[in-house]
Amino acid sequence: MNGPSAAGRGGTPEAATGAAAVAAPRDTDEPAATGTANARGAGTGISTATGSGADTGSGRAFGARLMAPLLLGSVLNPVNSTMIATALVAIGRDFHVGAADTAWLISAMYLASAVGQPSMGRLADRVGPRRVFVAGSLTVCAAGVIGTLAPTFAVLIVSRIVLGIGTAAAYPAAMAVLRAESRRTGRPTPRYVLGRLSLAALGSAAVGPTLGGLLAATAGWRAVFAVNVPLALLALLGALAWLPADRKDAGPGRAGSSGSLDPLGIALFAAALTCAMVFLLRLEDPRWLLLAPAGVLAGVLVWWQLRHPAPFIDLRMLARHGALVRTYLRQGLAYLVIYCVLYGFSQWLEQAYGASSFQAGLILLPMSLAAAVCSIVGARTKGIRAPLTLAAVCLALGSGVFLLLHGSGPLIALLCAGALFGIPQGLASTGNQAAVYAQAPADGVGAAAGLQRTAQYLGAITASGLIGLLYGQRATDSGLHEIALIGIVLGLLLLLLTLADRGLRPGATGAGE
């Protein structure tokens, strides 16, 4: 995944080998003969699309100048989603709020991202990816300033919402840029290019807790927000200097496909998700009345999506692709457990174990390293079912280890527990991504990938609510053990879903199920 050589050695062009191998031919407008030739080349490890010496044009087209701003912009959302984990205790202390309240900082960004990712993807197809990327970078800068200077906790939540909207633009815009470059050169996007985007997102999310702990310990928690300003400015300058200008025909040109943003569908989805999120964040004192408007809004959303010619969420497509829906379910459940542990463990380390923000970040470092290594291994695995099965097993086993932890336990146990839990982070991410690209319809890979991110964010929002319920105002051993029990149950459920899913068989696409 680290370059053309890794791509050339990594495996075959079959759908099960990874996202890039499937996405590349679907996103090009090249003649059939060219696509066939590239497929044959990939099978022998000498594909001209991998950036080898025989394809210098492709190497220049997807070179460092194009990729630098795309990679930098794409890390802003995942790194911000996890970087705040080791700053939550300090924020709560300064604003005199507990874990149930600081959970809003997590969920607010995920709510904005869950709506923003598919919305920004459609907008990039309509007005051009460069414009969307630039606008997103400016929005991230504004969010960084708001968070750094926030005088109240409510303003801090606003900054996270703005941050979610701004960072949601980069990844779909990057994919649109790569699709446009592929059409311009008449070649599929090289496998290693898409692999770098995937690794950048997962790697930045994995190192986020350690980075956040370092910033919070050395410069205060406001540095976790301030760091976004220089990063976003670098991405902005790179985009202005190196990304190709948007063309009037930059969109895919399919009538009624991505030309309509379906603003009513977006608004209904956001409203229903907001009601559900507010309910989940107060599970310790449930606001049952919120379920009524959430249900009504969801019903209206379904009715509208079935009537709209280009819906925000294509329910008919999902009904035809049962395997794709099951992949979204696996993604949501896996990240529900992952984020429960990520945020719950980091708060427990500071409040129950007595570690500082910086020490908590260091203790989480083995988890980050294991996740990064397993993401590379998972992307180079030939199948899909095997890594997803191993991820489910490790989720259950890792949760079992957390069940044995207590505030006075040995440090080595904490490091081993974190490392074990890093394995499913890497394998679940790359495995489900490969499944999405293999199971999505040929003309809807981008929208399907956006919904995969939405499923992940829904899992994170639910995790925030569970942490608030189980911890209350302070993390405790009993709260961590309850989180571990939930992880064991969901890990075993994921294992059953993975083993029973016929759509994960070699050669299966899940279409028409």
From TrEMBL:
Statement: the UniProt record of this protein carries the keyword GTP-binding:
no
Describe its membrane topology.
Multi-pass membrane protein
Top-level division of the source organism's lineage: Bacteria
Main localization of the protein described in the UniProt heading: membrane
Gene3D superfamilies xref list: MFS general substrate transporter like domains (1.20.1250.20), Multidrug resistance protein D (1.20.1720.10)
A Gene Ontology annotation in the biological process aspect, one of them, is: response to antibiotic
Give the record's GO CC terms.
plasma membrane
* Recorded GO MF terms: transmembrane transporter activity
Q: Where is the Major facilitator superfamily (MFS) profile domain?
A: 66-503
Q: Where is this region: Disordered?
A: 1-54
**Locations of Low complexity compositional bias?**
12-25, 32-54
Record-given protein name: MFS transporter
Signal peptide stretch? none
Report the transmembrane regions from the record. 70-91, 132-151, 157-178, 199-217, 223-243, 264-282, 288-306, 327-346, 358-378, 390-423, 454-471, 483-500
Q: Where in the cell is it found?
A: Cell membrane
Question: A single Pfam family, by name?
Answer: MFS_1
Q: Which UniProt keywords apply?
A: Antibiotic resistance, Membrane, Transmembrane, Transmembrane helix, Transport
